[in-house]
Fold this sequence. Notes:
This protein is of the alpha+beta class. The chain has helices spanning 15-24, 81-96, 102-120, 124-129, and strands spanning 30-35, 38-43, 49-52, 64-68, 76-80. The chain is built from four helices and five strands. It is globular, with a radius of gyration of 15 Å. The longest helix is centred in the last third of the chain and has 19 residues, at 102-120.
Amino acid sequence: xxxxxxxxxxxxxxxxxxxxxxxxxxxxxxxxxxxxxxxxxxxxxxxxxxxxxxxxxxxxxxxxxxxxxxxxxxxxxxxxxxxxxxxxxxxxxxxxxxxxxxxxxxxxxxxxxxxxxxxxxxxxxxxxxxxx
Length: 132
């Protein structure tokens, strides 16, 4: 497992933090939450808390995100942040697309995924892996 978080009061700036910040912007599904001295994302659906993972010792940042399911530190997982953010962006586009045309939903999805690829890099591998 990755090192969880840097000491209290420090601010992470790595890929993991950028992914958490991106997810926190996906209103109304998520919002920003300051927890344990760190900027996090809080699910407004079920209270799950997403926290950045310190990958500073890793050879290459992969953007892992710590997930505290329903905010419970005893039910903690680490997941690939780009994949989690990709799925969250698709759900957000669907939610915002209620009552809109498929073209409008597609345009919103494109905007969200373009922003995510600016943060994470190429998303083709994720898009291929998540196709039905």
